[in-house]
Amino acid sequence: MSAAQAAAGAAAKISNLMVGIGGWQASRARAAALKQAAKMARAEASMQGQMMADEGERVAAEAAVRGAAMGGGFEGSFDDVLRSIEQTAAFNARSAIWSGNVEAANRLYEARVAKQEGTMQLISSIVGTGASIAGDWMGQAQQRQQRQILNRMKARYGVRATR
Fold first, then answer.
1. What residues contact residue 44 under an 8 Å CB cut-off, 6+ apart?
2. Within 10 Å of residue 56's Cβ, how many Cβ atoms?
């Protein structure tokens, strides 16, 4: 093997390792971005839930004012309407928070998957490079052994080596 071939082989192996390291780093950055997206989803869900609760309180207060202006009390069907408005507002607030938590959980799962993919890419790169180095080493060892056998044959039988 010439020096140029050895240098080219080494460059290819280093390049393979760099691709693996780059993929690993990119996957870690993606995982970090997904974790941040999960935090944002939770924060947005909390804010959305609070807005839903505030809207429910506003609607209930408006209904109470209108009912009082009409001379109605807080009894019977009017009381049922107010209770329904409050329950709907609470349900909407909980739904918004639950939806945000589900989105956050999905982002966190995607982050774990991204980290695993990057780790597997790095391991694959290292194993591939190691296998290539071992293959080169074994090929060189085989060539040395063949040269030794040919040299022994030449010395013993006068056979001329073709390599």
1. 100
2. 19
